[in-house]
Amino acid sequence: MGLLQQLNDELSGVISSVQQSVVQIRDGRQSGGAGTIWHSDGLILTNAHVVRRDPVQIALGDGRVLTAQLIARDGERDLAALAVEANGLPVIAPGDSRQLHAGQWVMAVGHPWGVTNAVTGGVVIGVGKKMPELNVFTQDWVVADLHLRPGNSGGPMIDVDGRLIGVNTLMTGPGVGVAVAVDSVKDFLKKALNATPIRVETGKSAGAFV
Predict the structure, then answer these.
(1) pLDDT band at 2 (very low <50, low <70, confident <90, very high)
(2) Which of 102, 105, 110, 149 could lock onto 34 through a cystine, CB 3.0 to 4.6 A?
(3) First CA to last CA distance, the chain
């Protein structure tokens, strides 16, 4: 029991820290979506399908509600970058999705059905471009046996150390969640933030967006 309690306490601490870096994106829909603070000066990462208007309202973990501007969007990757006027924001340390392997424990944080900072967990099923039921092969995905719901999209998928290893994106079946791998996220940000004007693309996916 002592070991289990220690593990529980450690995970609770990790989750509490990560939750401070998760924002709620409000665009008028009931479930809205989530976002992850990528940089302390106000750069926020989310899914492209979450941002259906510009600007949008962002609720921070400290209760502030700010207006965010869309600065980059890629529909094929289903990623978008937003900016708010703020500094000193808490960020999640990026991990390395290339080091993930089947069986590792991961967790997803988001706002399913409007419930803020809800957490779900499971193990990695696989990582790669060719995942069952996915029609997009231009980037890496992380597939895990955890439940994602409307409002989880754009939120972080993290490892047990609280490092970002993916951006929650869709469900491909009962209890199977899919995230854009963090190494694809890094590539998106590197290219999109150096590009002018903002690049807008469209893409398709076989799963159900959350």
Answers:
(1) confident
(2) 110
(3) 36
Q: Percent of the chain beyond pLDDT 90?
A: 65
Residue 44 CA to residue 67 CA, distance in Å, equals 12
Q: Which of 21, 31, 78, 159 is catalytic?
A: 78
Domain containing residue 152: CATH number:
2.40.10.10
What's the pLDDT score for residue 137? 60
Catalytic annotation on 153? yes
133 and 198 assigned to the same domain: no
167 is in which domain, residue-wise?
97-183
- The first and second tokens of residue 210, run together, are 């959350």
Which listed residue (21, 49, 74, 97) is catalytic?
A: 49
The structure tokens 């601490």 sit at 13
Span 74-80, mean pLDDT?
Answer: 91
12 part of the active site:
no
State the Cα–Cα distance between residues 107 and 21, nearest whole angstrom. 14
Q: For residue range 95-151, list pLDDT tens digits in order.
A: 999 899 999 999 999 999 889 999 999 999 999 876 555 565 667 899 999 999 999
| pTM, entire model | 0.87
78 is catalytic: yes
